[in-house]
UniProtKB/TrEMBL annotation:
Organism name: Paracoccus marinaquae
Claim: Transmembrane is one of the keywords in the record: yes
A Pfam family of this chain: BPD_transp_2
PANTHER family: ABC TRANSPORTER PERMEASE PROTEIN YPHD-RELATED-RELATED
Keywords on record: Cell membrane, Membrane, Transmembrane, Transmembrane helix
Tree of life domain: Bacteria
Membrane topology: Multi-pass membrane protein
InterPro entries: ABC_transp_permease
The name this protein goes by in its record: ABC transporter permease
Transmembrane segments: 31-48, 60-80, 109-130, 137-156, 176-199, 230-251, 257-277, 284-302
Cellular localisation: Cell membrane
Length: 333
Protein backbone atom coordinates (compact mmCIF):
# COMPACT_ATOMS: atom_id res chain seq x y z
CA UNK A 1 0.00 0.00 0.00
CA UNK A 2 1.21 3.45 -0.86
CA UNK A 3 2.24 5.60 2.06
CA UNK A 4 -0.35 8.28 2.92
CA UNK A 5 2.41 10.83 3.19
CA UNK A 6 3.70 10.02 -0.29
CA UNK A 7 4.80 12.77 -2.55
CA UNK A 8 2.87 13.30 -5.81
CA UNK A 9 4.47 13.80 -9.24
CA UNK A 10 4.81 17.56 -8.67
CA UNK A 11 6.75 17.08 -5.47
CA UNK A 12 3.88 18.24 -3.27
CA UNK A 13 2.12 16.17 -0.62
CA UNK A 14 -1.47 15.52 -1.66
CA UNK A 15 -4.18 16.87 0.70
CA UNK A 16 -5.24 14.37 3.37
CA UNK A 17 -8.79 15.67 3.74
CA UNK A 18 -11.21 18.51 3.46
CA UNK A 19 -9.32 20.73 5.91
CA UNK A 20 -6.08 20.41 3.96
CA UNK A 21 -7.94 21.20 0.75
CA UNK A 22 -9.55 24.21 2.39
CA UNK A 23 -6.20 25.49 3.65
CA UNK A 24 -4.77 25.24 0.15
CA UNK A 25 -7.77 27.03 -1.30
CA UNK A 26 -7.50 29.90 1.19
CA UNK A 27 -3.82 30.41 0.29
CA UNK A 28 -5.01 31.42 -3.18
CA UNK A 29 -6.48 34.93 -3.38
CA UNK A 30 -9.29 33.84 -5.70
CA UNK A 31 -10.13 30.94 -3.40
CA UNK A 32 -10.30 33.21 -0.36
CA UNK A 33 -12.59 35.65 -2.19
CA UNK A 34 -14.79 32.80 -3.36
CA UNK A 35 -15.15 31.55 0.20
CA UNK A 36 -16.04 35.07 1.39
CA UNK A 37 -18.68 35.31 -1.33
CA UNK A 38 -20.16 31.92 -0.40
CA UNK A 39 -20.29 32.81 3.30
CA UNK A 40 -21.84 36.20 2.47
CA UNK A 41 -24.48 34.50 0.33
CA UNK A 42 -25.37 32.12 3.15
CA UNK A 43 -25.59 34.90 5.74
CA UNK A 44 -27.66 37.18 3.52
CA UNK A 45 -30.04 34.38 2.52
CA UNK A 46 -31.06 34.21 6.18
CA UNK A 47 -30.89 37.96 6.78
CA UNK A 48 -33.22 38.92 3.93
CA UNK A 49 -35.91 36.91 2.19
CA UNK A 50 -35.45 39.01 -0.95
CA UNK A 51 -31.72 38.32 -1.33
CA UNK A 52 -31.83 35.03 -3.25
CA UNK A 53 -34.62 36.09 -5.60
CA UNK A 54 -33.83 36.22 -9.32
CA UNK A 55 -34.71 39.90 -9.37
CA UNK A 56 -32.05 40.73 -6.79
CA UNK A 57 -29.44 38.43 -8.32
CA UNK A 58 -30.11 40.00 -11.71
CA UNK A 59 -29.73 43.48 -10.19
CA UNK A 60 -26.42 42.51 -8.55
CA UNK A 61 -25.04 41.11 -11.82
CA UNK A 62 -26.17 44.18 -13.77
CA UNK A 63 -24.65 46.50 -11.17
CA UNK A 64 -21.10 45.29 -11.84
CA UNK A 65 -21.21 43.78 -15.34
CA UNK A 66 -20.45 46.96 -17.29
CA UNK A 67 -17.80 48.24 -14.87
CA UNK A 68 -16.45 44.69 -14.80
CA UNK A 69 -15.42 45.13 -18.44
CA UNK A 70 -13.18 48.02 -17.37
CA UNK A 71 -11.83 46.00 -14.44
CA UNK A 72 -10.31 43.54 -16.94
CA UNK A 73 -8.20 46.31 -18.50
CA UNK A 74 -7.42 47.98 -15.18
CA UNK A 75 -6.14 44.72 -13.72
CA UNK A 76 -3.66 44.28 -16.56
CA UNK A 77 -2.52 47.88 -16.22
CA UNK A 78 -1.97 47.53 -12.47
CA UNK A 79 -0.07 44.27 -13.00
CA UNK A 80 2.28 46.03 -15.44
CA UNK A 81 2.95 48.65 -12.78
CA UNK A 82 0.54 51.38 -13.83
CA UNK A 83 -2.80 52.83 -12.81
CA UNK A 84 -5.45 54.85 -14.63
CA UNK A 85 -7.52 57.38 -12.71
CA UNK A 86 -9.25 58.55 -15.89
CA UNK A 87 -11.32 55.46 -16.79
CA UNK A 88 -14.54 57.03 -15.47
CA UNK A 89 -13.94 60.09 -17.63
CA UNK A 90 -13.07 57.81 -20.58
CA UNK A 91 -16.43 56.04 -20.27
CA UNK A 92 -18.10 59.44 -20.30
CA UNK A 93 -16.06 60.63 -23.30
CA UNK A 94 -16.98 57.57 -25.38
CA UNK A 95 -20.70 57.98 -24.76
CA UNK A 96 -20.81 61.73 -25.39
CA UNK A 97 -18.73 61.45 -28.60
CA UNK A 98 -20.91 58.61 -29.88
CA UNK A 99 -24.09 60.33 -28.71
CA UNK A 100 -23.20 63.64 -30.37
CA UNK A 101 -22.30 61.96 -33.67
CA UNK A 102 -25.55 59.99 -33.60
CA UNK A 103 -27.60 63.14 -33.05
CA UNK A 104 -26.05 64.82 -36.09
CA UNK A 105 -27.03 61.86 -38.27
CA UNK A 106 -24.32 59.21 -38.03
CA UNK A 107 -25.14 55.51 -37.77
CA UNK A 108 -25.03 54.58 -34.05
CA UNK A 109 -22.65 51.65 -34.61
CA UNK A 110 -20.19 53.80 -36.53
CA UNK A 111 -20.62 56.60 -33.98
CA UNK A 112 -19.81 54.10 -31.22
CA UNK A 113 -16.67 53.05 -33.08
CA UNK A 114 -15.55 56.69 -33.12
CA UNK A 115 -16.37 56.94 -29.40
CA UNK A 116 -14.20 53.94 -28.51
CA UNK A 117 -11.55 55.23 -30.91
CA UNK A 118 -11.46 58.54 -29.03
CA UNK A 119 -10.72 56.75 -25.76
CA UNK A 120 -8.09 54.54 -27.44
CA UNK A 121 -6.39 57.70 -28.73
CA UNK A 122 -6.53 59.22 -25.25
CA UNK A 123 -4.94 56.06 -23.85
CA UNK A 124 -2.23 56.19 -26.51
CA UNK A 125 -1.36 59.81 -25.76
CA UNK A 126 -1.39 59.11 -22.02
CA UNK A 127 0.85 56.09 -22.55
CA UNK A 128 3.27 58.17 -24.60
CA UNK A 129 3.59 60.68 -21.79
CA UNK A 130 4.40 57.83 -19.41
CA UNK A 131 6.71 55.73 -21.59
CA UNK A 132 8.44 58.42 -23.68
CA UNK A 133 8.35 61.57 -21.56
CA UNK A 134 8.87 59.66 -18.32
CA UNK A 135 5.92 60.91 -16.26
CA UNK A 136 4.30 58.66 -13.66
CA UNK A 137 1.03 56.86 -14.37
CA UNK A 138 -0.57 58.51 -11.37
CA UNK A 139 0.03 62.15 -12.28
CA UNK A 140 -0.56 61.59 -16.01
CA UNK A 141 -3.88 59.80 -15.54
CA UNK A 142 -4.89 62.42 -12.98
CA UNK A 143 -4.32 65.11 -15.62
CA UNK A 144 -6.29 63.11 -18.20
CA UNK A 145 -9.05 62.65 -15.64
CA UNK A 146 -9.71 66.39 -15.83
CA UNK A 147 -8.90 66.69 -19.53
CA UNK A 148 -11.32 64.01 -20.76
CA UNK A 149 -14.03 65.17 -18.40
CA UNK A 150 -13.56 68.73 -19.67
CA UNK A 151 -13.82 67.59 -23.31
CA UNK A 152 -17.09 65.86 -22.43
CA UNK A 153 -18.46 69.12 -21.03
CA UNK A 154 -17.31 71.03 -24.12
CA UNK A 155 -19.01 68.58 -26.47
CA UNK A 156 -22.31 68.59 -24.57
CA UNK A 157 -22.09 72.19 -23.28
CA UNK A 158 -22.95 70.71 -19.89
CA UNK A 159 -26.33 69.39 -21.06
CA UNK A 160 -27.21 65.66 -21.11
CA UNK A 161 -27.85 64.28 -24.60
CA UNK A 162 -31.20 62.50 -24.92
CA UNK A 163 -30.74 59.38 -27.06
CA UNK A 164 -34.14 57.72 -26.80
CA UNK A 165 -34.33 57.63 -30.61
CA UNK A 166 -31.55 55.05 -30.77
CA UNK A 167 -32.72 52.10 -32.90
CA UNK A 168 -33.93 48.96 -31.06
CA UNK A 169 -31.11 46.89 -32.58
CA UNK A 170 -28.56 49.12 -30.85
CA UNK A 171 -30.46 49.37 -27.57
CA UNK A 172 -30.53 45.56 -27.48
CA UNK A 173 -26.88 45.35 -26.38
CA UNK A 174 -27.72 47.38 -23.29
CA UNK A 175 -31.35 46.53 -22.61
CA UNK A 176 -32.02 43.22 -24.36
CA UNK A 177 -32.23 39.70 -22.97
CA UNK A 178 -31.04 36.41 -24.43
CA UNK A 179 -33.14 33.55 -23.08
CA UNK A 180 -33.93 35.65 -20.02
CA UNK A 181 -30.32 36.68 -19.35
CA UNK A 182 -29.42 40.36 -19.97
CA UNK A 183 -27.09 40.76 -22.95
CA UNK A 184 -24.90 43.09 -20.84
CA UNK A 185 -24.11 40.22 -18.48
CA UNK A 186 -23.30 37.87 -21.36
CA UNK A 187 -20.93 40.39 -22.96
CA UNK A 188 -19.25 40.95 -19.60
CA UNK A 189 -18.63 37.23 -19.08
CA UNK A 190 -17.25 36.86 -22.61
CA UNK A 191 -14.80 39.76 -22.08
CA UNK A 192 -13.81 38.45 -18.63
CA UNK A 193 -13.19 34.88 -19.84
CA UNK A 194 -11.18 36.04 -22.86
CA UNK A 195 -9.16 38.43 -20.68
CA UNK A 196 -8.43 35.74 -18.09
CA UNK A 197 -7.37 33.18 -20.71
CA UNK A 198 -5.13 35.66 -22.52
CA UNK A 199 -3.41 36.77 -19.30
CA UNK A 200 -2.77 33.15 -18.29
CA UNK A 201 -1.90 31.61 -21.65
CA UNK A 202 -0.97 34.16 -24.35
CA UNK A 203 2.74 34.95 -24.52
CA UNK A 204 2.13 38.62 -25.38
CA UNK A 205 -0.03 39.05 -22.27
CA UNK A 206 2.36 37.08 -20.07
CA UNK A 207 4.86 39.88 -20.76
CA UNK A 208 2.55 42.10 -18.68
CA UNK A 209 3.41 40.04 -15.60
CA UNK A 210 7.11 39.86 -16.46
CA UNK A 211 7.37 43.64 -16.85
CA UNK A 212 5.46 44.28 -13.64
CA UNK A 213 7.50 41.75 -11.68
CA UNK A 214 10.95 42.98 -12.70
CA UNK A 215 11.38 45.70 -15.30
CA UNK A 216 15.15 45.30 -15.55
CA UNK A 217 15.00 41.53 -15.97
CA UNK A 218 12.32 41.97 -18.64
CA UNK A 219 14.63 44.36 -20.50
CA UNK A 220 17.49 41.88 -20.35
CA UNK A 221 15.13 39.19 -21.65
CA UNK A 222 14.49 41.26 -24.76
CA UNK A 223 11.00 42.50 -23.84
CA UNK A 224 10.20 46.02 -24.99
CA UNK A 225 8.98 47.35 -21.65
CA UNK A 226 7.82 50.68 -23.01
CA UNK A 227 5.68 49.08 -25.73
CA UNK A 228 4.08 46.65 -23.26
CA UNK A 229 3.13 49.51 -20.97
CA UNK A 230 1.88 51.55 -23.91
CA UNK A 231 -0.48 48.95 -25.37
CA UNK A 232 -1.70 47.98 -21.91
CA UNK A 233 -2.67 51.63 -21.31
CA UNK A 234 -4.47 51.77 -24.66
CA UNK A 235 -6.30 48.52 -23.88
CA UNK A 236 -7.51 49.83 -20.52
CA UNK A 237 -8.79 53.07 -22.04
CA UNK A 238 -10.43 51.23 -24.95
CA UNK A 239 -12.31 48.87 -22.62
CA UNK A 240 -13.45 51.91 -20.64
CA UNK A 241 -14.76 53.41 -23.88
CA UNK A 242 -16.53 50.17 -24.76
CA UNK A 243 -18.14 50.14 -21.32
CA UNK A 244 -19.29 53.72 -21.90
CA UNK A 245 -21.03 52.64 -25.11
CA UNK A 246 -22.73 49.80 -23.20
CA UNK A 247 -23.99 52.30 -20.63
CA UNK A 248 -25.24 54.58 -23.41
CA UNK A 249 -27.23 51.75 -24.98
CA UNK A 250 -28.58 50.75 -21.59
CA UNK A 251 -29.56 54.20 -20.33
CA UNK A 252 -30.45 55.94 -23.59
CA UNK A 253 -28.63 59.10 -22.54
CA UNK A 254 -25.12 60.60 -22.64
CA UNK A 255 -24.29 62.93 -19.77
CA UNK A 256 -20.99 64.74 -19.10
CA UNK A 257 -21.15 63.88 -15.39
CA UNK A 258 -21.38 60.14 -15.96
CA UNK A 259 -18.82 57.86 -14.30
CA UNK A 260 -17.69 60.19 -11.54
CA UNK A 261 -16.22 58.01 -8.81
CA UNK A 262 -16.41 54.78 -10.82
CA UNK A 263 -12.62 54.71 -11.26
CA UNK A 264 -12.24 54.22 -7.50
CA UNK A 265 -14.65 51.27 -7.54
CA UNK A 266 -12.79 49.72 -10.48
CA UNK A 267 -9.35 50.13 -8.90
CA UNK A 268 -10.69 48.82 -5.58
CA UNK A 269 -12.06 45.70 -7.29
CA UNK A 270 -8.71 44.95 -8.93
CA UNK A 271 -6.81 45.43 -5.66
CA UNK A 272 -9.27 43.38 -3.62
CA UNK A 273 -8.92 40.69 -6.28
CA UNK A 274 -5.18 40.47 -5.65
CA UNK A 275 -3.63 42.93 -8.08
CA UNK A 276 -0.61 44.45 -6.36
CA UNK A 277 -0.12 48.22 -6.70
CA UNK A 278 3.61 47.42 -6.87
CA UNK A 279 2.96 45.48 -10.07
CA UNK A 280 3.74 41.91 -11.09
CA UNK A 281 0.78 40.21 -9.42
CA UNK A 282 -2.92 39.83 -10.08
CA UNK A 283 -5.50 37.99 -12.13
CA UNK A 284 -8.64 38.83 -14.08
CA UNK A 285 -10.60 36.16 -12.19
CA UNK A 286 -9.60 37.67 -8.85
CA UNK A 287 -10.56 41.16 -9.98
CA UNK A 288 -13.98 39.94 -11.17
CA UNK A 289 -14.53 38.27 -7.80
CA UNK A 290 -13.44 41.54 -6.20
CA UNK A 291 -16.03 43.66 -8.02
CA UNK A 292 -18.64 40.96 -7.40
CA UNK A 293 -17.90 41.21 -3.67
CA UNK A 294 -18.23 45.01 -3.72
CA UNK A 295 -21.57 44.77 -5.54
CA UNK A 296 -22.76 42.09 -3.14
CA UNK A 297 -21.85 44.29 -0.18
CA UNK A 298 -23.72 47.25 -1.72
CA UNK A 299 -26.80 45.12 -2.42
CA UNK A 300 -26.71 43.69 1.10
CA UNK A 301 -26.49 47.15 2.67
CA UNK A 302 -29.52 48.27 0.66
CA UNK A 303 -31.54 45.20 1.63
CA UNK A 304 -30.57 45.63 5.28
CA UNK A 305 -31.59 49.30 5.08
CA UNK A 306 -28.16 50.60 6.07
CA UNK A 307 -27.95 54.37 5.72
CA UNK A 308 -26.43 55.59 2.46
CA UNK A 309 -24.13 57.80 4.53
CA UNK A 310 -22.41 54.67 5.86
CA UNK A 311 -22.10 52.78 2.58
CA UNK A 312 -19.04 54.57 1.20
CA UNK A 313 -17.34 54.24 4.58
CA UNK A 314 -17.91 50.48 4.66
CA UNK A 315 -16.67 50.00 1.08
CA UNK A 316 -13.57 52.07 1.85
CA UNK A 317 -12.84 49.98 4.94
CA UNK A 318 -13.06 46.82 2.82
CA UNK A 319 -10.54 48.29 0.37
CA UNK A 320 -8.23 49.36 3.21
CA UNK A 321 -8.39 45.86 4.70
CA UNK A 322 -7.60 44.27 1.31
CA UNK A 323 -4.59 46.54 0.70
CA UNK A 324 -3.32 45.96 4.25
CA UNK A 325 -3.60 42.18 3.91
CA UNK A 326 -1.80 42.29 0.56
CA UNK A 327 1.00 44.42 2.06
CA UNK A 328 1.43 42.15 5.09
CA UNK A 329 1.45 38.97 2.99
CA UNK A 330 4.08 40.39 0.61
CA UNK A 331 6.17 41.60 3.55
CA UNK A 332 6.00 38.14 5.15
CA UNK A 333 7.02 36.48 1.91
Amino acid sequence: MADQGAIDSDGVKPPKGFLDWLKRLLRIREGMLLMILVVSFIIMSFASEHFLTWGNMRAVLLSFSTEGIVVVGMTMLIIVGGIDLSVGAAMCLAMVVAGKLFLIGMNPWLASLFGVGATALAGFVMGMFVTRVGLSFFITSLAFFGLLRGIGFIITEGTPLSLFTLPPSFKYIGQGNFYGVPVVIIIFFVVAVIGDILLRKASAFRKVIYVGSNEHAANYAGINVRNVRLWTTVLCSSLAGFAGIMFMARLGVATPTFGIGSELNIIAAAVIGGASLNGGKGSVLGAILGIALLSLVTSSMILLDISIFWQDTIRSLILLAAVSIDHLVNKHR
